[in-house]
Amino acid sequence: MAENLKGCWVPCKWPWAALQQLCRDQRLWCRALGVSRRSHGRFEVEYLCDYRRVRDEEFYLVKWCGYPSSSNTWEPRKNLHCRGLLKQLHQDLERVPGGPARPGPRGLPARATSYLVQKAKQRQALRRWERLLNNTRSHRGRIMVENEVDLHGPPSDFVYINEYKVGAGVNLVPVAVGCECGDCLANAVGGCCPGASSNKFAYNEAGQVCIRAGLPIYECNSRCRCGADCPNRVVQKGIRYDLCIFRTGDGRGWGVRTLQRIRKNSFVMEYVGEIITSEEAERRGQVYDRQGATYLFDLDYVEDVYTVDAAHYGNISHFVNHSCDPNLQVYNVFIESLDERLPRIALFATRPIRAGEELTFDYNMRVDPVDAESTRMDSNFALSGAPHSSPRARRRIECKCGAAVCRKFLF
Question: Does residue 362 contact residue 347 with C-beta atoms inside 8 Å?
Answer without folding.
Answer: no
